[in-house]
Amino acid sequence: MGLQPARSMTGFARVATDGEPALEATVRSVNNRFLDVKIRTPSDFDALDPKIRALVSAHVKRGSVQIHVNLRAQRATTLKLDRPLAEAYLAAYRDLAQGEGVTSPPDLTSVLVHPGSTGRGVGGAHEEQQKALDALLLETLEAALVKLNEERRARARNRGGRAFAGRDDRGRGGGGG
Fold this sequence. Notes:
alpha+beta
C-alpha cells in the first residue's frame, strides 16, 4: 500500500453557489478512528443520503465528518399543498385528541410545517427541478470535500507532519524505518 500525503483530521470547508436558488455546503471534520458521517440537509434532499455518504467516503477515509447543506430561494416560491397528507395529519390529531379528551381545534399552521405537507412546483416540472437541484448539491458538496482535503493537507504541513508522518490516509503505519 502506497503512502498518502499526510493529512490533519481537523478541517473546515464551505462552498456556496451563485444564482437562484443559492446552495451552500459546509463540511467539518475532526479526529475519529473510523469514518462517521452526519448529514443535515433540507428534507427535499433526503433521498440523496446514500449518494452523499458515498461521495464523502470517496474523499475522506476516517474522521467524524459533519455535512450541512443550506438551500436559499431568493425569489418567492410557489408551494403546493399535499391535501391528502395534510388531511391525514388532521385526522390523526383529532383521533388522538378525542382519545385524550382534548377539545381544542388543531393549529393549521402546525399541520403545514409537517414534512411533505407542502412542496415546490407541480408534477413533472417539480421532478426535473429536483433532479437539477440534486446534481447541484452533489457538485457543490464535492467541491467542499476537495477544499476540506486541501485544508487538512495544509494543516498537516503547518504542523510539520509530526503527528502524521509515515501514516496513510487510513491512519495505518506505512512500514519501513
